[in-house]
Amino acid sequence: MWGTVRKWFDRLFAEEETVVLLLLVVGTVLLLFFVGHVLVPVISSVVLAFMMQGVTARLARLGMPNWASISIAYLLFLSLFFGVLILLLPMVWQQLVNLIQELPVLLRKLQQALLVLPERSEYITETQIRSWMGMANNELAGLGQRAVSFSLAQLPNVLGLMINIVLIPILVFFFLKDKQQILGWLGEFLPHRRPLLTTIWLEMNDQVANYVRGKAVEIVIVGVVSYISFAIIDLDYAALLALSVGLSVVIPYIGAMVVTVPVLLVGYLQWGGGSEFITLFIVYSVIQGLDGNVLVPLLFSEAVNLHPVAIIVAVLVFGGLWGVWGVFFAIPLATLIKAVLSAWPKPHAELSQEEAS
């Protein structure tokens, strides 16, 4: 038995490139697991530079010099980066503060709406509803104290965030400017003959590039359209809810269902079940329908060929490991795993070829 296992192992890892690939995968996973939080600005900068690489490539195809295409792409990135920091985040933060301050009023409105349910359903009693609302009020009473404790505990993270805000634009510039030098330096540590790694790189470069850039465009379009729609119908916390709707597209299938609850709940507490709430429901349904049936096929169109079950499992696993970043990179990481498994040498295939010859 051990002889068979050893023979299989020797056949599987006979090529130097296979061993290097295994070491790369294991080393990357360990690096992200143990020091991933330290490398957040570097990883963020790599992703942002990767996204802007599409702009530089298109400008280069138009005949523009390399330095000019990089300069335009970097100026576009700076405009978007500081536009979000200066315009979007203060508005969202103010609406979040307003929401927290108005939570007691919203809870009272919710209690009044829920107290009607026992009259319509024999499975829900007034005692149950009052018990639920009592627990909610107790949680709300301790929210202020927890918020103060959380704020004091997050002071070091605020300092780190400020450092990252300075570091990320600098790193993005150098990743755009010195891309070839960095890739060349990394290539020196790999075998000179590397068809397996090249196959994986080409598949990953195409699929992940399409996915990341498409997902960024989808977030912007869905978020902007949601904000304009919510602002037109005068929905409270329009910017905060629109940002939530935009970011929800990062989590396939699950995100849209989760974000629907706060959107409709805020609308119901603001207007009740009248015509305004029905308008909100129709508008939100149209946005989700256009996103799923028009925008997603247009942006991705077979960019990532993964089964829905694989996508959901990837979101759960990587989200559990690395939080928000894990959720965002769940599909690229799943694509990487699929590419590695597809390109990995198959011992059974080699045996079949030997028997056929």
UniProtKB/TrEMBL annotation:
The chain crosses the membrane at residues 20-51, 72-93, 158-176, 216-233, 239-265, 277-300, 306-331. It holds the Pfam family AI-2E_transport. One of its GO terms (biological process) is transmembrane transport. The keyword Transport applies. InterPro entries: AI-2E-like. It is found in: Cell membrane. Belongs to the autoinducer-2 exporter (AI-2E) (TC 2.A.86) family. This is AI-2E family transporter. It comes from Spongiibacter pelagi.
